[in-house]
Write a structure and sequence with these properties.
Structural class: alpha+beta
Shape: elongated
Distance between the termini: 34 Å
Order of helices and strands: EHHHHHHHHHHEEHEEHE
Number of domains: 2
Largest sheet: 4 strands, antiparallel
CATH architecture of the largest domain: Alpha Horseshoe
Oligomer: single chain
């Protein structure tokens, strides 16, 4: 399998934190007005005295080169100080920046926690590592779940990787991955994620406000590579993942070839099987949303996981269908169970 890691642009994620400490707020106001030197002057003494929000803000400034010369090592140092005190945004930034700078092993614990909290770029990186068994143990079910969450969040590289994973991960593990993705989504929404941090999480004041920053100007923005062409492979044991160069490019090693397995979601209409009926669960402008709905419904509707999901392309629309269903009556009964779970359902003759 061609390496499916794409490029992950760290950029200026999240914002400048500003709790109700007057000097930190003054710094944020100055930052918003473009007076970066004044902002740094307000934050530095607070950061040196241990304020985690000021430390996080200084990390942002050094990463972007605003008010100071760009210095990624200094940025990581301030992120690390804030993360040690339970500043989760600092921990997320630290892991992504460490990975971008080539410290993949050191970044992985931070990225694993960030992926549980729902950070799409961390989910993409950790999902690929789990698929490879690179730096952490191989786990194709969790890899598929994290890649599905990253794809649903709109990360283009994750969507490309997910399509390639479909060719190698067995159907039963893909179904388990979709169900796990739905569980992760609920956990992210429910906020039951504070325990992911190794340090006590400092309660965030209700009056904290953030300032969205423009994309980082440090380095060229990186976009997802084109989908790789198939490469003939002779049967052999799966190679170990090569050590990546210190750059934001990361890749998935090709696993040992396996016999073709049924895909969990066909991108073209499949030939009608016994009975020639399916049920249609919805139509979406994004394929990731169709996959996410399937993962949710298989955990709610009894017996739905026994059917094959299909992603049927119709121009820009992707229709989610399940089947084959033996008869019109069986399709109607299946739709009744799906509607009871709060989803739309229409029987369709194929």
């Amino acid at each position: 399998m061609k390496r499916i890691w794409g490029a992950v642009a760290v950029g200026a994620m999240m914002g400048i934190a500003a709790p109700v400490l007057a000097d930190v707020k003054t710094g944020v106001d100055a930052w918003q007005q473009g007076d970066y030197a004044k902002a740094i002057g307000e934050w530095r003494p607070l950061a040196q005295n241990g304020d985690p929000d000021a430390q996080f803000n200084l990390g942002q400034a050094y990463k972007l080169g605003r008010g100071v010369q760009p210095d990624l090592n200094a940025a990581m140092d301030w992120y690390r100080k804030a993360a040690t005190q339970g500043h989760l945004r600092a921990e997320d930034n630290l892991g992504l920046l460490m990975f971008q700078q080539g410290d993949r092993a050191g970044a992985m614990p931070y990225l694993q926690r960030a992926s549980v909290r729902g950070e799409p770029r961390a989910q993409y990186i950790v999902g690929t590592a789990l698929f490879n068994g690179d730096l952490i143990g191989k786990d194709w079910v969790r890899a598929y779940a994290l890649m599905t969450r990253a794809s649903t969040s709109g990360l283009a590289q994750a969507t490309t990787s997910l399509e390639q994973m479909d060719k190698y991960i067995p159907e039963d593990q893909r179904k388990q991955g979709l169900a796990l993705a739905a569980t992760l989504e609920q956990s992210e929404k429910g906020g039951a994620l504070a325990s992911a941090s190794p340090a006590p999480v400092r309660p965030t004041p209700s009056s904290v406000r953030t300032t969205e920053l423009p994309p980082s100007t440090i380095g060229k923005p990186v976009t997802a590579p084109p989908a790789p062409k198939p490469v003939p492979v002779k049967p052999k044991p799966a190679p170990q993942v090569a050590v990546a160069k210190p750059a934001p490019q990361v890749a998935v090693a090709k696993p040992k070839p396996t016999p073709p397995a049924p895909r969990p979601a066909s991108t073209v209409p499949a030939p009608a099987a016994s009975g020639g009926w399916r049920v249609q669960l919805g139509a979406f402008g994004e394929e990731g949303r169709a996959r996410g709905l399937w993962g949710q419904l298989t955990g709610k509707v009894s017996g739905l996981s026994a059917y094959q999901p299909y992603l049927v392309k119709a121009g820009p629309v992707t229709r989610l269908q399940a089947g084959p269903v033996a008869s019109s009556d069986d399709a109607s009964r299946l739709c009744s169970r799906i509607k009871a779970a709060g989803a739309d359902c229409i029987p369709k003759r194929m």
